Amino acid sequence: MASPWWQRAVVYQIYPRSFADASGDGVGDLAGVIARLDHLRGAPGALGVDAIWLSPFYPSPMADFGYDVADYTDVDPLFGTLADVDRLVAECHARGLRVIVDWVPNHSSDRHPWFVASRSSRSDPKRDWYVWRDGRPGGRPPNDWRSSFDRVGAAWTLDEATGQWYLHKFTAEQPDLNWANPEVEAAMLDTLRFWLDRGVDGFRIDVAHEVGSVPEPPAGTPGTEPWLRDQDWPGSHRVMGRVREVLEEYDGDRMAVGEVYVFDQRRLTGYLAGDELHLAHNFVFMNTPWSARAFRQTVEEFDAVAPPGAWPSWCLENHDHARVASRYDGGGRGPARARAAALLVLLLRGTAFLFQGQELGLPDAEVPPERVVDVDGRDPERAPIPWEPPSAAGPGAGFTAGEPWLPIVADAERLAASVQRDDPRSALALYRRLLELRAATPALHEGRQTMLGGGDDLLAWVREARGERWLVAVNFADGPLRPRLGGAGAPAGELVLSTDPGRAEGRVALAGLELARDEGVVVRLDRA
Ligand code: GLC
């Protein structure tokens, strides 16, 4: 039986504010996404991704750029209308693209009618929909929890009018919902059904591991100490189980991927035990330094601790993290390492997640202090996509006819999608080839995986399925490397792809293979 689509898939994250602006107001929108679908799938020269994950487009005061949701079942006018979502889903499905939408269950906006009611009085029927507590003596908040955003400080804000504090693990405009209240659970699960009924293929679940945490230790836990933390609660697992039940009400392989931001892979994979999430983003991988040994450890540890059937997924970029080309720059090596990193995300066994612009090798944008808008320093990776060179399309680089809400990357002239499209040496061309190869090769999208040794300098692994064996090798050393590849189990093969545009492809003997600095190669091994 073929593996489910979400195991084979390459999923492409769209951050709607920064993808494409059809209205000309400087902020991206759904009509812009629809107009640019040819870039993704179903047109000549398209990247060839299998699904898109749309970051929030719901009505929002934008205190956290959409992750503060004021209505879970509508669209912010900035982005369009419900009819635009329907059109987007139809256009994607017509191209064979699945659609994943972001669901933000841990907190709503403080302008959500639920919270407006909840804060109105201690006796309001919605009071208990959020996490309200009395302060400690001396005007101190109920406990010492801190917001995830350093600039926010305490995770509690005092409501003067009613004399109690409410919990917010992010900004004060993002009050935490009280998942211990069955009415909250019922109302929130209904918002999933709203989108499933409209045909979406699944959800990315915002801070899945934080859902359902309250300041008191969970019932039945021995001792209170481990529960002083504000995340990874039994309640989070319970809610993910309920989400799964809702997905199972629908046919057609609907999928849930959680943002499970925990650094212990045993705890991370605990969400993948079968009746909770299908996939979890792996932030151990995302935060791995540029070291072959560190990546190998992360991958091997996942396999060692994951429960049977748990499927890995890999991503190196999203809207919350510096881009790979900047993060791994190491004195000018960013662009080459970003190309090599594409092999890690796309050819390690697991579902691959790409962030818009990663396929263009975009670096972080320079954001001068007067243009900073995010509370947590995440503007640089959220810079708009340069679609055309500014010399041809004007300063909005084909992203907008207006003034872009964040600056475009400095090198838009060279990095623009239209410039890369016809250049076989471009990052875009490399990604396109890798996606094509992955989709066409069972060993590379569902095959078994064996990690080879290689110390600090070499990350290498073999994938195999249906009698084919493929070797992937990436050079992490500071110079050229002649790797020992005896573990590959074949003396030679066909070098099918290199991240170094200067490399000639074709027959290669592994014993004589020398990898250039920051080069990664893909070799179809000879049959033994
Ligand atoms: C997640 C989102 C991030 C947001 C936070 C609060 O981490 O990815 O962008 O700020 O949750 O919703």
Describe the structure.
By secondary structure, this protein is of the alpha/beta class. It is built from 16 helices and 17 strands. It has an eight-stranded parallel β-sheet. Strands 12-13-14-17-15-16 form a six-stranded antiparallel β-sheet. It is globular. The two termini are 27 Å apart. The mean pLDDT is 96. Residues 64, 67, 104, 170, 206-207, 259, 319-320 line the site of alpha-D-glucopyranose.
Offer a quick outline of the entry:
This protein has helices spanning 5-8, 30-35, 82-94, 113-120, 182-197, 234-248, 265-269, 283-286, 292-305, 324-327, 334-347, 390-393, 412-415, 417-421, 427-440, 442-446; strands spanning 10-14, 51-54, 98-103, 132-133, 156-159, 164-167, 202-205, 255-260, 279-282, 313-315, 351-355, 448-452, 458-465, 468-475, 492-498, 506-509, 520-525. By secondary structure, the protein is α/β, with parallel strands linked by helices. The strands form three sheets. It has an eight-stranded parallel sheet. Strands 12-13-14-17-15-16 form a six-stranded antiparallel sheet. It has a three-stranded antiparallel sheet with strand order 4-6-5, with no helix packed on it.
